[in-house]
Amino acid sequence: MTITKGVDLEIVEYLYSAEKERREVVKVTDRYPELSFSDAYSIQDKLIQRREQDGSRKIGLKLGLTSRAKQQMMGVHEAIYGYLTDDMLALEWEHLDFTQFIHPKAEPEIAFFIDKDLEGTNVTAEDVLEVTKFVAPAIEIIDSRYLNFKFTLADVIADNCSSSKFLIGSKWMSPRDLDLGQLGMVMSKNGQVVQTGSSAAVLGHPATSVAWAVNKLGEVGKGIQKGDVILSGAVSEAIAFEPNDNVLVHFAELGSVSFTCKSST
Ligand code: 0L1
Ligand code: MG
């Protein structure tokens, strides 16, 4: 740790209150430039514990920076992970309240439903597919707590990788029944195509991305559990949206998932 115990809890409160009060804040490394990745993951853990104190339940994992393009943009060579909690799950058939966000963006993802615990440091994509009961189309809504969505890698890890909400489509399939590594994707906003991509953009194959996270967790004696939902990483760039926008993501074979945003519920 390069920061002291009191400071980590101070940062947790700083980020948690920014989220609850829907405020952009100055990034943590402006004040603590020495913040290391391991400090940042430790702060992330404590941020999740703080949410749990308030009644949230950890239900899975999400991967970020899984495309080579985004890694190059950030000048890094690795993906990152954060946690999903039950209160992040939004439902397709309910309008999303825009006032709960700061400056949200939506990105297309593939969700994995895990059926068996998996832990280790040599886990492969095949191992991940073995323990995956279903995959489904998903949208992640990211909403960095930092000013203008600008941060360093340590900042974004501490901020639970910009996690905010996610939606899962209704078509769930066994990963063995489709070509998961090469699924075409089209994302539209208000009927206009805004992004296209392929599941191959996620570290070559979304299961490779999940395996990376399991191995990374394995380094600190953790793993993934039966019942976890995992968002394997964005298939294209995230797009900003506003009240009254409708965002739809369609994956070949896997089908669609969408949401409409209202200014209030
Ligand atoms: O889920 C994501 O890909 C977000 C990772 C963090 C970077 C960002 O907020 O763009
Ligand atoms: Mg994401």
Automatic annotation (TrEMBL):
InterPro entries: Fumarylacetoacetase-like_C, Fumarylacetoacetase_C_sf, Hydratase-Decarb/MhpD_sf. The keyword Chloroplast does not apply. It is an enzyme of class 4 (lyase). Its EC number is 4.1.1.77. It comes from the Bacteria. One of its GO terms (molecular function) is 4-oxalocrotonate decarboxylase activity. Keywords: Lyase. Residues 104-258 form the Fumarylacetoacetase-like C-terminal domain. The keyword Membrane does not apply. This is 4-oxalocrotonate decarboxylase.
